[in-house]
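Listing S7. Sequence submitted for prediction.
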Amino acid sequence: MTQPELFTIKPAIAAALSSNQPVVALESTVIAHGLPHPLNLETALRLEQLVSTAGAVPATIAIIAGKLHVGLDHEQIKRVATSDDFRKISTRDLPIAIARNWNGATTVASTAWIAQRAGIQVFATGGIGGVHRGSLPDVSADLPELARTPIIVVCSGAKIVLDLPATREWLETNGITVLGYQCDELPAFYSRRSGLPIDARVDSATEVAQVCKAQRALGIETALLVTVPVPEEFEVPEEILTGILDDALSEAERTHIGGRELTPFLLSRMARQSEGATLRANIALLENNARVAAEIAKAIV
C-alpha cells in the first residue's frame, strides 16, 4: 500500500475523486523537458483549461520537494516550466526523489503510477515511450509500467523516433489492449498512420468506457491504451518526417547522445529541421488528447 502522507492532492481534485467526478491526469515532463519556453508554460495551462472546459478536473502531476503533487496551482506549473532544477523522474527514481527531497517532472511511467494510486482513472499524454531503434534491447520504462498499472492512457501512439513495429509487438506480447480512437490503425505521433494494427476501433468515449468496464471486471491489471491520431491539419507528411528523423539520428550518433537524453534531443532537432512543423503537431495532439481524455473520464464515472 502507498502511504497517503507522500501525496499532496489538490483540494479540488480530492473533492472530485471523493464525489466520483471525472478527473484527468497530465504529465509534467512535457512541461519541464519536452517543449521550449514559453510554449511549455502556455501549453501546460492550455491543457488544464481544455480539460476543465470539457467538464473534467485537470490534475497535472509533479514532484515538489520530495512530495508527490497530484494537481498543481498556476505558480507551481510556472515553476516547473521555468526552473532548471526539475529532474526527469521515472518510476524507478521515485524513492530517491522522495528520500532526497528532489523536485521532479514525471514521465508517462511515473505519472501513470502516481495517478492510479491517487484514484485517477484517465491519463492524457502526447506519445508514450517504447522500444528504441538500434541493436541493443533498449525499452522505455513506460512500457512495463503500462503492463502493470490499470489506468486508461490517451496518447497518439509511441513517439516517432522509436522503433514502432517493435513497440507494437511489445504491447501485444505483454497483453496491453490498444484501441484506435476513430481510426483503424495505430497512429504514429506526428503522422496519422503507421501501418500497424490496433486491437479494436472505438468511435466514442462511451465505447472506451465499455471496454474499460469489461477489462476491470475480468481483473486484467494492465493499462488500456487509447490511441488518437494527430488532427489532420497538423499532420507532418511522412516524406518530410523520414528525412529529418534520419538527420537527427545521425547527429545523435555523432555526438554520442543516448539514454534518457536521446528522445528529447531528437524531438528538438526535428522541430528545428521542420521549421516548427513537428512542434506544432506535438502541441495540437496534446490538446486533442486532453479533450478526448476528458470525454472518456466523464463516460466512466
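Caption to Listing S7: primary sequence and predicted C-alpha cells for the chain studied. The first helix runs from residue 11 to 18. The chain has a mean pLDDT of 95.
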